[in-house]
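testing teh design pipeline on a random one, pls ignore if ur not involved
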């Protein structure tokens, strides 16, 4: 779950929720303490671009926050795109990129199963 890992990594980095919010704001990610709390409790999830910034602030990779195999694959793809410099500005990532990639993977798997 993203929330559990977010809290763990935030605390390991010795950020309070308030200090973490201030650090995110340096990257133009403006969220409230309540929003961070909702992320950590699993009530809501950060957008793809917000997760990329969270990973950067906490010196982690996007894939470090993901558990589901499809999401983990997409996270690794995002990590690679960032590493290659193909994603320079996380604020320009389509908001639904993660959902689009996961949907594409699911459709691909379904079509492969039908062929078998």
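output:
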């Amino acid at each position: 779950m993203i929330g559990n890992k977010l809290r763990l990594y935030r605390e390991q980095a010795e950020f309070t929720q308030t200090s973490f919010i201030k650090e995110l704001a340096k990257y133009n990610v403006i969220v409230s303490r309540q929003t961070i709390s909702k992320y950590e409790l699993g009530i809501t999830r950060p957008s793809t671009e917000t997760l990329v910034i969270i990973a950067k602030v906490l010196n982690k990779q996007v894939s470090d926050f993901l558990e589901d195999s499809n999401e983990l694959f997409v996270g690794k793809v995002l990590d690679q795109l960032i590493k290659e410099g193909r994603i320079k500005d996380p604020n320009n990532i389509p908001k639904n990129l993660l959902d689009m990639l996961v949907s594409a993977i699911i459709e691909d798997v379904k079509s492969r199963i039908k062929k078998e």
